Amino acid sequence: MRRLLLGLLCIPIMYAETYVERISAVTTTPGLVAFWDFTKRESPGQRFSAHVPAGAKNDFALDAGNYVKDLWGQGPAASYADFPLLGSGPFGQAIRIKQETNPDFRPLLFVPRARLQDSPLDIKGSGKAVTVVVWAIRESGNHALAGIWHEGTDLKEKTTETIAKVERGQRQYALFAGLNKEGAACGHVSENGASSFLNKYALHKCNSAEASPKVPADSAPAVLAKSWQTFAMTFDSRTQEMTGWLNGISGDRWLENPQQDRLLSFAANAWLQGRLAKIPGTQPGEDPTFPADQYYNPPEETPVKVTVLSEQRSKREELREYRYTKVKVTIVNDEERSRELVALRLNPWWFPHDLYTPKADGTGGPFTIGRVIHSSRSVGFTGWIGGVAVFNRALTAAELGKLQALTVEPIPSPTDK
Q: Do 293 and 372 belong together in one domain?
């Protein structure tokens, strides 16, 4: 802290005061686990470290690495030089995630598993909740911003044919820049570290209603200053809801005709299999081998809204909207004859599980910033990241709104570059 205060003397006092106020706004928010502002370091010129609660034993210093080199044995090593600094941002500094052209070079900043196992950052297990907030300018891409999300290198991909180190997925929680809805704030969680609904990927994810714009990372300073976005995801274990937030706003997002979606058609089938399994006997379309722990059946007891689609003397069709699904119901002689899934709600998303708990054998995933470990090795998100914060509870809309307000006017770096 003494070094930080000395650094503050190098800039106008108005900015020094603003920096302290903004850091305080984050660190005094209840539930903070870690907050990287890319200004705080172990010592000048050393690794970035996190603001943590008083008495915490780990400041989660960030290593630089190239996961392709680590797992494929290909490509160069990464260093802090691979993350250019902007010299300003919501908290005075930002790192750049570049559009790398070398397919064997995917640099990221990370806290190794050995330094986070069973720490407050290792959010997992029964009743645990989480919020991830990332202040960023998105240049391109829809992939990871930050989290514990080791996709695994055991997936059958063309890129894994040359893999040197095969590892099972170790997914817990992460925030993405959209995934299936590019530019949205996308929360992603897993109950098993691996796949969902018999698809090879994890599919429990939410998407904010709004999406962030694309802004070239080399834009003029005045343009960048107005382009900061606050991405956030929350998982509330009490309500079993995961929600994506962009600039403090979540909004509703639905996926119509999920059976036609390349990935979420698997969730639609999980809904169908769970419903059919409740009916005695084997029903048309039922897969008796479908694992019961992968059914996806959000509560559908009381509809939020009912719309009559058609009505004849003895037959009526209704569209019933529930909290997380829209279902077309056919009723004949006052008896329900069929149900058809019409839409899945993507924001919030229903997640009736605990966050995955990896084995305590060192195989859990690291906490990464800028990228996650994934088998396809795509470039992912590019742009500027000016802050990353993790909380062990689901922040409220009001709290996220206050964190969003910190982007109104960027400030210069309070320490020497």
A: no
> Is the separation of the CB atoms in 253 and 266 below 8 Å?
no
pLDDT given at position 413: 83
CA dist., res. 384 & res. 83, Å (int):
10
Half-sphere exposure of 208 (CA within 13 A, CB side): 28
DSSP assignment letter at 217 = T
320-356: pLDDT as tens digits: 999 999 999 999 998 999 999 999 999 999 999 999 9
CA distance 86 to 92: 9
* DSSP designation for 210: E
* SS3 of residue 61 by DSSP: coil
Alpha carbon 417 to chain centroid, angstroms: 29
At residue 138, the pLDDT reads: 98
Tell me the C-alpha distance between 103 and 105, whole Å.
6
Report how many domains make up the chain.
2
Tokens 């040359």 belong to which residue?
162
Q: Which of 344, 368, 399 delimits the end of a domain?
A: 344
Considering only residues 155 and 215, tell me which one the structure prediction assigns the higher pLDDT: 215
Per-residue pLDDT at 154 exceeds 60: yes
Q: Are residues 184 and 332 in the same domain?
A: no
Please state at what angle helix 397-404 crosses helix 13-27, rounded to 10 degrees. 160
Q: How far apart (Å, rounded) are the C-alpha atoms in residues 139 and 159?
A: 25
Q: Which domain holds residue 331?
A: 258-344
Q: pLDDT (tens digit, 9 = 90+) per residue, 132-146?
A: 999 999 999 999 999
> In degrees rounded to 5, what are phi and psi of residue 301?
-80, -50
365 and 324 in a single domain? The answer is: no
| Radius of gyration, alpha carbons of the chain | 23
- Asked if residue 254 lies in contact with residue 344, where contact means CB atoms within 8 angstroms, the answer is yes
CA–CA dist 217, 224 (Å, integer): 8
Q: What is the distance, to the nearest Å, from the Cα of residue 233 to the centroid of all Cα atoms in its chain?
A: 6
Would you call 259 helix, strand, or coil by DSSP?
helix
DSSP 333-382: TTEEEEEEEEEEEEESEE--SPBP---SSS-SPPEEES----TT-----E
